[in-house]
Amino acid sequence: MQASIDEIEQSQSDAGSMLLEMRGIFKSFPGVKALQDVDFDLHPGEVHVLLGENGAGKSTLMKILSGVYTPDAGMIRLNGREVAFSNPRQAQDHGVATIYQEFALVPYLSITQNIFLGDEISLRGLPVLNWPAMHRQARVALRQLNLDVNPRTTVRDLGVAKQQLVEVAKALHRRADLIIMDEPTSALSQHEIEDLFSVIRQLKARGVGIVYISHHLDEVHRIGDRVTVLRDGQRINTLPVSGVTVDDLIRMMVGRNLSDQFPKVDIERRDEVLRVEGLSRKGILHDISFAAYGGEILGIAGLVGSGRTELARALFGADSIDAGRIILDGKPVKIHGPSDAVDLGIGLLTEDRKEQGLVLGMSVRNNITLPILGRITSTPLLNVRQEREIAGRFVHDLNIRTPSLAQQAKYLSGGNQQKVVLSKWLATSPRVLIFDEPTRGIDVGAKVEIYTLMTRLAKEGVAILMISSELPEVIGMSDRVLVMFEGRISGMLDRSDISQENIMALATGGDAAHE
What we know:
single chain, 515 residues, alpha/beta, Rossmann fold, 3 domains, six-stranded mixed beta sheet, 18 helices, 24% strand, globular
């Protein structure tokens, strides 16, 4: 099935001369062959999607292109000229810009200061910065992206979508003709994604080439021209997106068929575990009432700003409530903080695992046992043997890929980090588990593993609340779906009524159609 690069180049000859050619790229780290004889190329005005599971080599290949790493072997040409970068500045000077998932912006500086950082304009003959000229040029770059905002605005006062466009404006100012976008839609609403795609189309029209990295396979056909799949450090194939299906992509990425992306099984609903009555938080949540049952996955859907995460935080005690009752196993409970929630058997997998779910500098073992330290400490000293046994059991049961229990969490892939967070809550023997964006930023293979674990927990009688912005995930895994709109519950859908149309109707303040 593998197509040769020559064949692909021939089929793309109408796209113009090559902007980028990477040939025979090798890169190894101690004990790991990260890239083995990888070819990759890009035409002007093209979006070339780069796919692969975590650890497939995507980031390593792009870090070589952006000057972070130097290859062990191979050749890189930009606009027909061979280049070799020893640092990111050299790549930037050659027109290569990278927009990382975690933006490289200084939040306390203005838009203008960020755009010109390291490239400031001085008044002629004076050691004084020419702020009027820089503001003027920044405004021009922002207008090119239809971003109507004062360039003197501090970056921290912007939303995520506008911060991303500041990154693009910075790239345009530096005359980048090749932009690498790493998971650009991971934190955007659907409306913001459409705005970003519009900007990408504008960039294509100007001849800018874009390398687009994403775990969202539906975006491949929406924005891509060609797609390359890496697996285990090797290029599996490069194809026009018009000639490949999502199933084809999954098969190439994981090396096997995933006929069922959502391993949902019918489970007999058990007794009520959680009941919420009239829960309110001024200006944020309004009269929230619902019940969740053992053996059930209750999906929680809604647009960004609908109050989904705020509801999770209120149930977990991270935010206070002004009114309402929380009833657990038939008994009213008071949750004044997260420690109360943990003691009552409520766990929360936060949407931002790196900032709120893990202590990245701590080991896998320490992260897993963090919520239960009181249970494994009978003296002033921690029972290290028991800690190792508990952590080792979860690493085995959840198939966490780590060299050892002592490995720092920050060095794991996104999917394995998420499984460490899940292990942490499983160690508490929870009655209720709240998953907030459970598969954000993890690859398709790891997603299926997370879904399988959720199903296993439901079978064991745990009540699961799953908050997700991915409608296929909500539809594929939920027994019922609670839809929120402007801090209120706009509707509850039974499984027979769950559809994209009904969810979106309720999420925008309308009514669902029932058969």
